[in-house]
Amino acid sequence: MALVNAFNASPHLAEIEKDYERVARQRTTYTFLLLLVCTISIFGGFYVAEEANSGSFWGGLSSFWDYPYDIFAGAYERGWGLFSLAAKYFPYLVETINIAIVSTLIGFFFSSILSFFASRNLMTNSLVVMVVRRFLDVTRAFPELVIALLLVLIFGPSPLAAIMAVTFHTIGALGKLFSESNENADMKAVEGLRSVGANWVEQMRFGILPQVLPNFFSYALLRLEINVRASAILGFVGAGGLGAELKMVVDWNYGADIFVIILMLVCAITAIDYFSSWVRHKLVGATGTL
Amino acid sequence: MVTVSGFEQARLEDQYAGVIERPLAQRLIAPGVVIAILGYLVICFFAFDVPGVLNKARMDMAQLYALDSYAHKDHAKLSFRKADEGFELSLEGTRRARYDTPPAWFQSNGAESRIDLAGDGIVAFDGQSIVTYTHPDYDEPFRFRVGGGDYPVYLGSVTPEWLGDSGKQIDARPSLYSRIWITRSKIEVHRYENGWENFWFGFNSPLSGMSIGQLTSLAMSSDRIEPEMSNLSFIASEFWNNPEWQHGDIFYALLQTLIMAVVGTLVAGIIALPLAFAAAANVNPLRGVRFGLRRIFDFLRGVDTLIWSLIFIRAFGLGPLSGTFAIIFTDSGTFGKLFSEAIENADRRQAEGVQATGASPIQKYRFGVFPQILPLFVSQMLYFLESNTRSATVIGALGAGGIGLKLLETMRTRQDWENTAYIIVLVIGLVILMDNMSGWLRRKLIGDTEG
Predict the structure, then answer these.
(1) In what order do the strands lie in the sheet with B163-165?
(2) How far does the CA of residue B105 sit from the closest CA of chain A (Å)?
(3) Which domains can be identified in chain A, with CATH numbers?
(4) Which of A93, A117, B60, B328 is most solvent-facing, going by the fewest CB within 10 Å?
(5) Contacts of residue A42 in chain B, CB cutoff 8 Å?
(6) pLDDT in tens, A220-251
(7) CA–CA separation, B25 vs B337, rounded Å?
């Protein structure tokens, strides 16, 4: 209605146009400022990074292909022997994937329980919500590598260090996503259950869980892929799996072995990625949920 | 309470067969899955040899590391060969940090020396051959005969669990906070105290041990400690260049990590944007190009940041530049995939509407598609900014520099756990800050809609 009135009353038109121009100018200014900030941070960042780097960018550019070339040359020389290398490293890949699956499962268990205590609509005690949320924040922010390093010092080189480190981080990461999806859940089911005298656990079990479980599974599958990467990385500090082997062959510069391990890792990660997005599509019927 | 009559119940059961009483096979799915998962976990438990690993775990080391992260240790050491020099008092036993004036816990009258172990009692040495240790829980003090080129001898009969006497050396640890260690050649007493020592100023700094009040009056005073600079800037530089805590270096390293994350995310987004349009089915009709781009995205993403950083470190050397490129490569793939999916899911009608007004193809995408997906781009980039801060720390530890490398250095020495704890606190703080900031920016820029 307002729009029609504005069009009918011509004196207002000039005013609207002026307003529009003012808003447009403001937008352009903001966009320009944002671009400026981005440009400055990119170039300034590159400058600082270049200063702190031990080699320079332009010096390194010419030798950029040397290392990939070495790897491919090593792999080419080996020829069919690559398959026996793949067979040799396959058990380590299985170990890495197992580390990821176990930590995702355990992390899923704890974070799904904690998420109910971190959701404002489900937990009336706001102190509990705050404490659990801060706990999740810390577990999420704690770099896995640090935990793995500490545990390797205590346990010695063992996959257990990787499992505990990845699990710890998974609890925080999933817990946050789960609690967000709890908060978006429809509360009518809970109200219905409360009206027939269900206790809190029953309300959660029958009112919320059936609504959010597909989301939970979807997030957990996404986590699985991230955790495969993480457990491969943690091998670098001695936490077992394919990463430990990769570190060894990188240190010794075995081109063929590096090639095979990287290829296996890339294939495994891509395969899990496609598998998980296929299952997620079945579960929640939409892609792109982060 | 709602009651249902028998007739009504029969009708309901008839109408909703399989809802009230579900078929057996369906009811067995959930417990079956749980049992399968538990079985898998049990297999993994033994495959990873968890009992063996836990058995061999050095929990005593863990306890010491943990203690060292929040407490500091003073050493008092007397070597019998140089007995006339008396006890040497130092922080962590290093020569660089020797106490010139004895701290309050140490008393000496030339011949006899007393070391106060707070809750664990008092150790005294008579300057000749007897060490007496008075523990608050025991009436009789523990006495040891020491020196004279012989192994130490315990003169008492009561041997508590914490008193180790191997015949060649005495090693008493009444609690985690103190240790008395006597060998043929020396007496060494370790004494832990809670708190980070010399956090503000180095051990040898003239400002060491000053209170806030003293510092304020010093900053106000016109008598300069260092003739070249004012007292305030002297205080600041003493703090910034603290040799034990290296605040300046650590903050510079933190900045490098932040740069890796911010620049990496921004540049990856800028690279991914045009590629994403070229890989979207509703923009680019060339199937072959789309397929190729999709596989490139997969490859960039599948090769982990860590492996990219290994390659870049070979080319560009150790440092944040290599880390930045590693993040750019991985995230270009991730953003390319996410953005192209978002473009494909964009509403066609807006683009058609713009086209109907006679817009060129570029204008059509600029005004018809771009405004729809921009919030999603920004939101995803901000989301990754936070996770990249963490990955920048990780790849930094493995060679790309920044705070990760600093962290690894402090852990490798296995002595500076207080520095490790400090850096961990800073990293967690940074990640939480980035998390909150990106959430705030997301809400500010695109309203409350998530992802």
Answers:
(1) B88-91, B71-79, B186-194, B178-182, B170-175, B163-165
(2) 33
(3) 2-62 (no CATH), 68-284 (1.10.3720.10)
(4) B60
(5) 263, 266-267
(6) 988 998 899 889 888 888 888 888 888 888 88
(7) 40
